[in-house]
Amino acid sequence: MSKKEYENLKKKLAFSPQNAWKGLGPRVVDKFTSGYMDFISKGKTERTLVEETVRLLEREGYVPIEKSNLKGEVKAYKVYRSKAIAIYRIPKKLEKGFNIIASHIDSPRIDLKPRPVYEDTGIALAKTHYYGGIKKYQWFNIPLAMVGIVIKESGEAVKINIGNDPKDPIFVISDLLPHLENNPDKKFKDINGEMLNLILGSKPITFEEIDSSIKLNILKILNEKYGIVEEDLTSAELELVPALEPREMGFDRSMIAAYGQDDRICAYASLKAILDAKTISRPTAVIFFDKEEIGSDGSTGAKNQFWIPPIKKILSVRKQDMDLFLEDMLSSTAVLSSDVSAAVNPTFKEVHEINNAALLGHGIVVTKYTGVHGKAGANDADAEFVGKIRKLFNDNKVAWQPGELGKVDAGGGGTISKYFAEHGMHVIDTGPALVGMHSPYEIASKADLYHSYLAYKAFIEKFEL
């Protein structure tokens, strides 16, 4: 066999993911990335991201589902308890089956406890409780912002956002200096959640000797600025997020470093896809859920299918057989569970099985199954559906790669896909891969972000079961 024959046969039979930058226009990618960076800068929490999503939707003519003409073409959205949102594009004729892209918009972070403020050795601090899977040491000695909402006894909602504006003060969880650690490695391993105490201030309300005068000064500042008292903090959701702005990364500016890219990178790509799609092949929904990082429990998590009641309302208005349609719809619905995968970090290659590992800059990752050990907790998409998705991406020149979340028995994780699969829907996980996932500053490839957008747009415009 000649070398030319060998190369031709290899091209015909073998498969190897290609670099996703091939054929992309840098200006188009950079413009898309700029919009994304602005989006996640404004949406560092579930609530603020939903607010920014609504702003972008209304700019393009979308309206709340309650104000939409349900008998005609629907371009609307449904906000659920301020922390989840469903976006609909439904034609006048509602036939069997939807195309759905579903992401989660919560990210690992640190929350304030219900009774957080205390004083110790001349410093006012706040007790915290971390949310989701974090490496605790990564949250020491970085600038933090406090973002959230306080509900007063009267029912009034007070929004808090301190630390993201460059003129704001920031907050820090401080670590022990190395001079006093005889065994730094042991200390590193012994970090526990109760050590994540946030420094709030150090100035007393009076210079007379009075107990808790520094704590009282913090409470006085909160009362003067926001009109809240300490008891109001028991009905608050205050999140600590990195006070770090998204930045281009590398000499070649090929990457994005930012907090919360798991999974807001997928949310943005799917939002832009539904807004930019010229046509839809089937009724379409893009859904952003909360609570994925803690198992999708809670009223705003994916276990609560809050997006279905508006569809029932549409069926009722159009006088269609609701029960029969819903049964057919669920079994005929295709879902892209759009969540990120883990890209190989060259420094820690040993946790990956390279032949089935995702590489940064090689396109959107198609993950047939997630789970841990023996695929526990996975959706495990059927081969027929994987084949259709693969063909869709190939036909539309989407750079893609198969991937797993590390070696078998090395660890693992789950997504929201199984909560759709249990209703009989066709589901698969697709999303870009990140380096440093769940850290305060995750890394993504611009090319992977853009190909994710192209994949989701093709799914909305052209996919048929």
Reconstruct the topology from this structure:
Blueprint: H1 3-13, H2 26-42, H3 46-59, E1 63-64, E2 74-80, E3 84-90, E4 99-104, E5 109-120, E6 123-131, E7 144-151, E8 157-162, E9 172-173, H4 184-189, E10 198-201, H5 213-226, E11 236-242, E12 247-249, E13 255-258, H6 261-276, E14 284-289, H7 308-317, H8 322-331, E15 334-337, E16 341-342, E17 364-367, E18 371-372, H9 383-395, E19 400-402, E20 412-413, H10 417-421, E21 426-431, E22 433-434, E23 442-445, H11 446-462
Parallel strand pairs: 1-2, 4-14, 4-15, 15-21, 16-22, 17-19
Antiparallel strand pairs: 2-3, 3-14, 5-6, 5-11, 6-10, 7-8, 7-11, 9-10, 12-13, 13-23, 17-21, 18-20
Question: Can you offer a commentary on this structure?
Answer:
The chain has two domains: 3-107 and 259-462, Aminopeptidase (3-Layer(aba) Sandwich), CATH 3.40.630; 109-242, Aminopeptidase i, Domain 2. It has helices spanning 3-13, 26-42, 46-59, 184-189, 213-226, 261-276, 308-317, 322-331, 383-395, 417-421, 446-462; strands at 63-64, 74-80, 84-90, 99-104, 109-120, 123-131, 144-151, 157-162, 172-173, 198-201, 236-242, 247-249, 255-258, 284-289, 334-337, 341-342, 364-367, 371-372, 400-402, 412-413, 426-431, 433-434, 442-445. The two termini are 42 Å apart. Strands 1-2-3-14-4-15-21-17-19 form a nine-stranded mixed beta sheet. The longest helix has 17 residues, at 26-42. With 465 residues, the protein is α/β, with parallel strands linked by helices. It contains eleven helices and 23 strands.
